[in-house]
Design goal:
Number of domains: 1
Order of helices and strands: HEHHHHEHHEHEHEHEHEHHEHHHH
Helix content: 40-55%
Bound molecules: adenine, zinc ion
Catalytic activity: adenine + H2O + H(+) = hypoxanthine + NH4(+)
GO cellular component, one term: cytosol
Family: Belongs to the metallo-dependent hydrolases superfamily. Adenosine and AMP deaminases family. Adenine deaminase type 2 subfamily.
Strand content: 5-15%
Protein name: Adenine deaminase
Radius of gyration: 19 Å
Number of helices: 17
Strand order of the largest sheet: 1-2-3-4-5-6-7-8
GO molecular function: adenine deaminase activity; zinc ion binding
CATH superfamily: Metal-dependent hydrolases
């Protein structure tokens, strides 16, 4: 209980949460009804059935199949706003101070929802979180790697006005990893580097893919952060490079357990990263699907690793340092 209070108070930053991954049954079913969405015949119809699915994912793809159908209930600007606002209030109750949140516009564009609807709804929730909860926020647009790079470039074009206004602060890459290696998206990342050099570049890598996916994300996409990065531990030279460059990994412990990236949270290479000086943060990924928000993920790590207070302070400090905010805000967060 003492450690619970300490971890609650610790200045936590989240760098890896998909807003669509915060859509749980309590909002999914009412939205389906409100928007007259007929869910597929094989989609769970009760909270219990949905929970059973959540507890039995075979792998990343098995989760993604449910995730893309689930987000199909999001139609209006208000829906996107409500989703993000519910996340911010939960995260705030968990003691979160700063949130860098992913979203997947292609999962909405292909259903005929406009970029404007998605971004306006999320932005409204971000503004409200800053004003009413004191949380700083950043939106990071992710490209779906199972779609062609051409689609990614078109999506970047649609998002231009929002990058220019400073409403979107980053570019990420997510979805099915192994069949779609980083090099497929070189052009998308090069475009961003050339036309929007102020934007944070990140990519999911080394969740199911091997260390070469991390190398290629760093070398070919020029990302400054790696999302997941668990498989970095299989390559000592990569560990050295991550430490030297102080590239932060956004670790998602409960996600890794639920998607069977590891058999046990205790198997995550956290001690090795700390020993080698590789910075990482602790994150919830898709909290509605994986059974826990940010504090639950901290507690799950504490349960397996039993870190002392200085170690936790170091982890929190690395999270603040790796955040995409100005120095003044970092000083405030620490
Ligand atoms: N989309 C949402 N969550 C994801 C994850 N953990 N890996 C890849 N794509 C995702
Ligand atoms: Zn993710």
């Amino acid at each position: 209980p003492e450690m619970h209070a300490f971890l609650h108070e610790l200045p936590k930053c989240e760098h890896h949460v998909h807003l669509e991954g915060t859509l749980g049954p309590e909002l999914l079913f009412p939205l389906a009804k409100r928007n007259n969405i007929e869910l597929p015949k094989d989609f769970p119809t009760t909270v219990e059935e949905l929970q059973y699915k959540y507890d039995n994912f075979k792998d990343l793809q098995d989760f993604l199949d449910l995730y893309y159908v689930g987000m199909g209930v999001l139609i209006t600007e208000e829906d996107f706003y409500e989703l993000a606002w519910a996340y911010f209030t939960k995260a705030h109750a968990d003691g979160l101070h700063h949130a860098e949140t992913f979203f997947d516009p292609q999962g909405h564009l292909e259903r005929g929802i406009s970029m404007e609807t998605v971004v306006n709804g999320f932005k409204k929730a971000c503004d409200q979180a800053e004003k009413e909860l004191g949380i700083t926020t950043k939106l990071i647009m992710c490209l779906l790697r199972h779609l062609p790079a051409k689609d990614g470039l078109d999506t970047i074009q649609l998002a231009k006005p929002y990058y220019q206004k400073g409403w979107i602060h980053g570019l990420g890459l997510d979805s099915s990893e192994k069949p779609f290696p980083p090099e497929l998206f070189e052009e998308c990342y090069a475009h961003m580097a050339e036309h929007h050099p102020e934007v944070l570049l990140t990519a999911h890598a080394g969740e199911e893919g091997g260390p070469e996916f991390i190398h290629k994300s760093l070398d070919l996409l020029n990302v400054t952060r790696i999302d997941h990065g668990v498989n970095s531990i299989k390559d000592p030279l990569l560990i050295k490079k991550l430490a030297e460059q102080q590239t932060m990994l956004s670790l998602c412990p409960m996600s890794n357990l639920k998607l069977r990236v590891v058999e046990d949270i205790g198997d995550l290479p956290i001690r090795e990263w700390i020993a080698a000086g590789v910075p990482f943060s602790i994150n919830s990924d898709d909290p509605a699907y994986f059974g826990g928000y940010i504090l639950d993920n901290y507690l799950a790590v504490q349960d397996k690793f039993g870190f002392d207070i200085p170690t936790w302070k170091l982890i929190a400090q690395n999270g603040v340092n790796g955040s995409f905010v100005a120095k003044a805000r970092k000083d405030e967060l620490l």
